[in-house]
Amino acid sequence: MEQIILGAVQGIIEWLPVSSEGILVLIKINILNSSQPLPEIIKQVLFLHLGTFFAALVYFRKDVINLSRSVLNFNKASKETKSLLFFLIISTIISGILGGLFLKLLEDTPINLETMGKIISGAIGVLLIITGSLQLKTKNSGKRKIKDLKTIDGVVLGIVQGLASFPGLSRSGTTVSALLFKKFDKKTALKLSFLMSLPVVLAGNIILNGKDFTISTGNGLALFSSFIFGLATIHLLLKLAQKINFGIFVIGFGVLTILFILV
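Request: output the structure for the sequence above.
Response:
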């Protein structure tokens, strides 16, 4: 039951601008009274991200198939597919390097990175509220789409996603915020943020959990729960973003971020 609950929480909050890693660690320690060492809890939390990885993979299967085909037959790929592929490669490499450095820093330094992560999250929350407020005042929001992706976008978003390695800092919140500031439209910002999570989550699990991976009933239930709830909520979130004023949507994200760090 604990595994099902943890998987459900991961599936629901992965797409929101709060740190799913931070929330799951707090649940394990304070509610489930786990006696596991913190590194082991973090590895389990990373494993739960595989559920939402598969949820995003299924939801964006057409994009993933197109990207896979473009790798095998690059010359015949469309301009939009090539732009997306380059964006994901550049952002993944940069965020992977930064993420590795931050994890090393977390192991070797006495600096309280969790506190630093919350400070950055608070700043992100404020920026989201400002962004949403500006969108409420203007009739025209960002208009950039996937075909408008440039190399600099991959670099910037790679850095932003890499910064989300800080404990307490939301990956989705930071990447969506950055994409909105770079004038991408709301649907594209959410889509790119979710697609960016795929290679990073997969690589992180291979590197950190690959050697110790074991199949058990508990792991299977956690993974299935995370997948089902993740698939349901990613669809709901994208539909909600299309139906309501996105300024209100973004302000809500910002408020959630600030409330999270105050809890």
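The chain has a mean pLDDT of 79.
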